Amino acid sequence: MDTDRLLEKLRKLYILTLDYEFHKSSYAKYMDSLRSNYADLLQEAADVCDRTDDGAERIAACIPEYVCHELDQISSRRKRDLKALDHKMNMVSYFVPLMGEIPSLQAKGLTERMVELWNEKMPEYKIGHSTYESIKGGFKKGIFCYITTAVCRSMHKPDDCYELAALRAYRDGYLSETEEGRHIVEEYYNIAPTIVKRIDREDGADEIYQGIWDEYLSPCIRLIEEDKKEECKELYVTMVRSLEKKYLYS
């Protein structure tokens, strides 16, 4: 089996998925198509992992090395950061989950090593491990925590910070208890990744996130603490409509 030929096929597959949109309504369809159309390639990858001593390591390094090389060719820091954002989204959304489904017992270890090598080669553009199931579950969390997580990240707050915990509890409790609340989450969670991605492309992304925090999220937390849950919902809807208008339709 020609491992070099396999690695070239994987690079071409990765480049293909760069053009895929990341939306709740189309994600499962795209992943089903990838599984079906590239079943033979996934089997080849599994065979290389299982039958060669260094196969899994070479596959794990393939895309991190490719992306690192591509980014090194971009002299402008701003353009490099924007391109890195596309690569990070593609890696976490499509490529790592797809490689995690190769028919091999080494699949999980392979993708974990892939993420590890990525973060070693590009520490300024770190990614986390992902699976198809975790992303499907993530869609159910909704825009509230997607945008909030992006804001807290820009403010260097950890994923388990008080603010995120409070807003997640509000989402899973009050919002999820009523049909209207569930509809609000359902209506908006499909646009959250696009809103965050477009904010991240702005020159003053950190300032934008700080503004969202000051105008919407910090007041939302105060309203939750004061048990003014309906007022929090109204402010939340105002936030989403404002961001939707500015970053999707402007």
Describe this structure in words.
The protein has 250 residues and is mainly α. The chain has 2 domains: 3-136; 142-247, no CATH class. Helix content is 78%, strand content 0%. It contains 13 helices and no strands. The chain has helices spanning 3-17, 24-37, 39-51, 55-72, 77-99, 107-121, 132-141, 143-154, 162-177, 179-188, 192-200, 205-225, 229-247. α1 packs across α3 (39-51). It is elongated, with a radius of gyration of 20 Å. The termini are far apart. 28% of the residues are buried. The model has no long low-confidence stretch (mean pLDDT 86).
Q: Tags for this entry?
A:
250 residues, mainly alpha
Number of domains: 2
The unreliable regions are: none
Portion in helices: over 70%
Order of helices and strands: HHHHHHHHHHHHH
User: DSSP helix count?
Assistant: 13
CA-based gyration radius: 20 Å
Mean pLDDT: 86
Shape: elongated
- Derived from helix and strand composition plus strand pairing, the structural class reads mainly alpha
